[in-house]
Amino acid sequence: MPIEEYDDCWLRYDAVADEDRLASYRTRCANVYASTGAPELGAVRDELRRGIEGLLGREPHLWQHPPRSADGFLAVGTPGEMEVVADSVDVDAVEALDDGGFHLRSVEWEGADCVVVTASTDRGLVYGTFHLLRHMALGRPIDDLDVSEEPTNAERIVNHWDNPFRRSVERGYAGQSIFDWERLPDLRERYFDYARLLASVGINGIVVNNVNTQIPDREGANEAMGELAGWQLLESRHLEKLTGLASAFRRYGIRTYLSVNFGAPEKVGGLDTSDPNDERVAEWWAAKADEVYDLVPDFGGFLVKADSEGQPGPYNYDADHVDGANVLARALEPYGGRVWWRAFVYGSHEDRAVQQYDTFEPLDSEFHDNVTVQVKNGPIDFQPREPVSPVFGQMPDTGLGLELQITGEYTGQHVHACYHVPMWKEVLEFDTDPDGHGRKVKELFTEEGTGLAGVGGPGEDPNWTGHYLAQANLYGYGRLAWDPDLETATITDEWVRQTFGGDPAVVETVTDILHDTWPAVIGYSTGGLGLMHMMYNGSARLENHYDPGPEEWPGYHGATEDGIGKDRNSNGNGYAQQYPDALAEMYDDPETCPRELLLFFHHLPWEHELDDGRTVVQTLYDNCYAGVEEAERLRERWRTLEGKVDDERHRHVAERFDEQVLQAGRWADALSEFFHDYSCVPDDEGRVPLDE
Questions:
Q1: Which residue numbers delimit the Alpha glucuronidase N-terminal domain (predicted)?
Q2: On the chain, which terminus has fewer CB atoms closer than 10 Å, C or N?
C-alpha cells in the first residue's frame, strides 16, 4: 500500500458476485435522481458514485430529474423536494421522523422500479444513503424494501484525545493525529474520508481535541512535550482553523465540538480568575461563545474535564460542579450549544470509585438543560471489566451521557486484539434497579440532552486504528450508539462481511476470533475475578499502562498476606451501598456477588473456596493461563485464513497476534508470581515462575 493511501475499512464496496442480485441492484440503482440543495446532499451524491460503482461495476448515472428512459432508478430526497418521493411514502410519517431518521422503500412509479430514500432532514438522507449501501454491500435484497429507522440516542459523539499542536494522540495507538493544525483551515481528503466512516454508522458529533487540555507538569513533561496545549484552541488566532474541519464534517451531518480548559478565562482571556460565580467570567464565556458561533454557526458545544488529574475546576473557587457547568451552559444556550461535563472527578477520596456518585448525585436536577453529565461506564477508568457506575439510574432529573472507550488503553493498546462490543452490550443491558423501579442503562439516553460519547479516534496509520481488527470497535460503537438493541452477533456479522467479504469460512473464523478476544484479555490481564489496575504506570515523565505492574497499585487490588481484593461493601468503604437496595445487597454478600466482580467488592482469603471448589488464588492462576491459551488459539485460528484474506491484512494481524501471545504470557507470569509472593500458595499445575 503506497504511503499516501489508507484503508477503506468497512466502506470497501466490493463487487456483487451474485448475478440475480446484481441485476436487481442495477435496475433500481444504476440511475440516481438525488437532491442537490445542501452540503449534506453533495456528500450523498459522492457516496452513491463511490458505492454503486464499486458494487455494480459501473458509475451510476446522476440525474437532475427522474429519468423516464430507465427501467428503474434510485430517488434520494425529502417529500417536499421530489414528486416521486411524495407519491411513494406517507409524507406525514416521514416528516415526523426524528432528526437523522430515514425511510427506505421499494416502489413502482410511472412504470419504473424504484428505491426511495427519504427523511425529514438532510442529515437523515446521509444516514439513509449509507444504510442502503450497507444493505447492498451485505448482499441483501432491495426489491421489497420498507424500512424506517430513527436514532435511539439523540447525541452520538466521538471524543478525540488528540493534542493539536504536537499531532500526538494521548489515548490512541495508530500514529499521529490525522488533524494537521499547522495547515488548517486547508483540508485534506482524509478528513472527508474520516467523516464518511463516522456518518456511515450514524455519528453526529466530534470533539476534535484532547479532554486533557492542560497536561500536568510531571517532572518537566510539559517542557519535553512542547509549550502549546489544547486550551489555546480558544485563542482567536486558532479558532479560524476550526472552520475547515467544521466544513468537512458538516457535509456528513456531523457537528464539531471543542474540549476546553476550565481556566480559559485566565489562560486565554487574561482575567485574574476563572471563578464561575464571577460576573466577569460569565461575560468572558458569553463573548467567546459569540466568537465561536460567528465562525462556526452549527458548532456543537464544549467538553470539559474539571477538578481531575491536574485540570482546574470549580473547586479552585469554593464552587461546585453545577456552578462550573452552568456558567458555560448559559453562554452556549442562545445558540443551542451543549456542555458535556465529565464526571471523571477524583482526588479527594482514597478510592476513586466512591467519588463520582458522592460528587454528582446530590446535584441532580440543578444542571441547566443544555448540560450533559458524561459518566464513564464504570467507576475506575476503562478497565477490562468493571461494575456499571452507580450514577446511572440515580440522577433522573439530569441529562446523562455514557462514556465508552473505543481505543484500547487498558485492553492491549491496539497491539492486542480486544473487541469491545460484548463489553458495551453488558453495560447497556445492565438493569440499574432489579426491584423494578429503574431502567436498563440503554434506556437512559433516549431523551434530548442525553447520549453516548466514545473516547479515542483513529490516527495517521494507513489502517486508521493501528490494528485492523480494532476497526470493529469504531464500527460497533457507532452502530450501538444508533441502536443499542442491536445484538453483538448482528454488528459483528455486518462488520466482518463489509470488511473481509462473504466467504463463509472467513466470516465464521473472524467472527469467532472477535467474540473470544475480550474474555482472553480479561483472563491474562486481571485474573478474571474483578481486580483492577494491574498494569505498570510508568515513570513520572511517561505513562505506560501496557506492561504488567500490579505492585504499583495496592489501593486497587488490596493484596496482603492474608488475602486479596478490596472491601467496597458495608464492612469497607460502603461503595456497594451507593447502588439501589437490590444491587447493594447482591454486591455486599460474597455468596451472591457476581464472580467476575468478586474481588472488586470483597477482600477474601487466598484460600477462600468458590462455588466450584477451587480457591481464590487457584482460580486466579487458572484464569491467567487460560487467557494465554485462548490467545494462542486465536492466533492459530487467524493463521488458517492465509490465502483467504489479502496478504497485507493477514500478515499485519498475524504479527500482532504473535506479539499478543508473547505479552499474554508475560502478563500471566507476572500476575501469578505476584499472587504467589503474597499467598505462598503453589499453583496446582506448577505454571508459576518462581525465583530460585
A1: 9-132
A2: C
CA dihedral 639, 640, 642, 645 (to 10 degrees): -100
Tens-place pLDDT, residues 469-513: 999 999 999 999 999 999 999 999 999 999 999 999 999 999 999
The helix (H) or strand (E) run that includes residue 378 is: none
Where in the sequence numbering do the catalytic residues fall?
309, 381, 409
pTM for this predicted structure: 0.96
What is the dihedral sign for C-alpha 597, 601, 606, 607? Answer: negative
Quick check: 276 and 315 in contact, CB under 8 A?
no
Rounded to whole angstroms, how far apart are CA atoms 208 and 211?
9
pLDDT confidence of residue 228: 52
Is the distance from CB of 65 to CB of 150 less than 8 angstroms?
Answer: no
Rounded Cα distance, 274 and 195, in Å: 35
| Cis peptide bond upstream of 185, omega within 30 | yes
Q: Are 220 and 200 in contact (CB under 8 A)?
A: no
- CA neighbor of 265 nearest in space, from 253, 255, 257, 273: 273
Q: Read out DSSP for 544-595?
A: --SSB-GGG-HHHH--BTTEES---STTTT-GGGGS-HHHHHHHHSTTTS-G
Residue 337 to residue 300: CA distance in whole angstroms:
5
Whether residue 210 contacts residue 492, with contact meaning beta carbons closer than 8 Å, is answered with no
In order, the DSSP letters of 142-169 are: -TT-EEEE--SSSEEEEE--EETTTTEE
Cβ neighbourhood burial of 595 (10 Å; 0-12, 13-18, 19+): middle
Cell 481484593 found at: 565
**Does residue 165 contact residue 225 with C-beta atoms inside 8 Å?**
no
Distance, in Å, from the CA atom of 201 to the CA atom of 251, rounded to the nearest integer, reads 15
Taking the C-alpha atoms of residue 136 and residue 146, their distance in angstroms, rounded to an integer, is 14
- How far apart are alpha carbons 261 and 245 in whole angstroms? 20
Contacts of 634 (CB under 8 A, 6+ apart): 417, 513, 516, 517, 520, 657
Closest CA to 97 of 109, 83, 79: 79
Residue 64 grid coordinates: 437532475
Residue 640: count other Cβ atoms within 10 Å of its Cβ. Answer: 11
Intra-chain end-to-end CA distance of the chain, in Å:
49
> The C-alpha cell of 517 is what?
478476544
Q: How far is CA 334 from the centre of its chain?
A: 29
Length of the chain: 692
Amino acid at 124: G
- The conformation of residue 217, written as its DSSP 8-state character, comes to -
Q: Taking the CB of residue 505, how many other CB atoms lie within 10 A of it?
A: 10
Q: Are 79 and 89 in contact (CB under 8 A)?
A: yes
* Type of residue at 448: E
The 10s digit of each residue's pLDDT in 154-210 is 999 999 999 888 888 886 789 999 999 999 999 999 999 999 999 999 999 999 999
Pairing of strands 563-564, 604-605: antiparallel
Cβ distance 356 to 379 under 8 Å?
A: yes
Enclosing H/E stretch for 257: strand 255-260
Give residues with Cβ within 8 angstroms of 384, minimum separation 6. Answer: 410, 411, 418, 423, 518, 521, 522, 525, 526
Alpha carbon distance 597, 430 (integer Å): 14
User: Domains of the chain, with CATH numbers?
Assistant: 19-149 (3.30.379.10), 155-491 (3.20.20.80), 522-566+603-679 (3.90.1330.10)
Q: What does the angle CA 523 – CA 528 – CA 534 come to, to the nearest 5 degrees?
A: 80
Say how far apart CA 575 and CA 584 lie, in whole Å.
Answer: 9
Position 51 pLDDT exceeds 50: yes
